[in-house]
Amino acid sequence: MYPTLLRNALFPALDVLNGTRIASLLSFLEESQWRSADELQALQSQKLRATLAWTHANVPFYRGLWDGAPESRRPRSEHPELDGVPVVTKEELRAHLAEFPVPSFRGRALTIKTSGSTGEPMTYYRSAEQESWFWALRFRMWGWGGYVVGEPYLTLNLNARTALRKRIQDVLFRCSYHGFNAHSHDVDAALRDLRRRRVRHLIGYSSSLYLLSRAMRERGVDNPGVQSILSTGDTLFPHYRRAIEDVFGVRVVDYYGAGGEGFHLASQCEQRGEYHVHPENAVVEVLRNGVPAQPGEMGEVVVTQLDNQAMPLVRYATKDVATVGADTACPCGRRFRLWSSIEGRVPDIVWAPDGSALVVHFFTILFEHLKGIRQFQVVQRERATIDVRLVEGPGFDRPTVEQAVKTAIAGATHGSLGVRFEYVPDIGVAGSGKRRFVVCEVTPDGGLGL
Fold this sequence. Notes:
By secondary structure, this protein is of the alpha/beta class.
């Protein structure tokens, strides 16, 4: 009965207290997901035109950028309203933070501080309206994975959750929250909560879910009753997915967004296949060399929010990379556009002199099948060479591993990329708490340039 009580009574009451409308938007999204492609496009275009008009009239930063940016900053778009509108970067927004929240914005703005995936601090301002869409979309995506609002769930995140408001929220939504990252995780505490609270849904960073699954496998621990698993936050590598699904016997649903910026953009559905791009709250583009990427092509994700007047994000370069899916409909019946995969971030891709791009998955699959490697990291500081950092484990054979790595990379880059090896006792994590498998410090030549 509690899920019914929460959805119909407590949820709307919380909206009144917080000045949000998450409950009503969730009901809208549960209906809109079954609309036709034409209806969804019409809704999105209407909101986009209103967003651009308001931003131009009220935000001097964007007005100056749009009027003065060179042609090189004006990529093409399949959306007529955005065609030629300059792309904006996080660095540009950071330099103009004093101009946000927009002075003419009326309403409550949330201040969101984030270290970013590489430890670079950033502040975002999010309107209560955008906050409402953020949570409503999250609950819809979770629903695709089997979650029911009000049922107990456990979240594995990178950092502890201590704010009083958030702790009260966790109690009402029956959430058990654990800080769980590469260098700090309490497996016993997580397992106790899974059993004691009869948790049905497990939600967390892909790397955190993998760490828990690996620890359970090593201890011979079976699934204590989890019925659905949702992953987010960092890349769900194939070996992550296999380990999680093997231990729990439950298929993983992956979703993609950004907590700092306050958007949820794409997610797998019940089919656990391609990623559905959510159109109601944002225009999401994938750009390659200044034009929209075509099916099968990889490009950079660029986002325009449609409900955040406190700090509009218009053609915001996320530095994330996705591959566009085929122009077909998912068997689930939803008419959203599809991505075939989410590749990670631009700084997580190695660029070879011949123009080849080696995504993180290339390296995780390569090193997964080489014996005796405890940890690895690939660093590119110059165009023609990468440094492969390795932590040796039992059964490691240097000549065999080095030859296998050189052969694989030469084959993938037509022999254009050299390899150096470095052996270290440990590989640390980034300032955000995530472990980076690839660190690229060079700019792609003719790669994903916007």
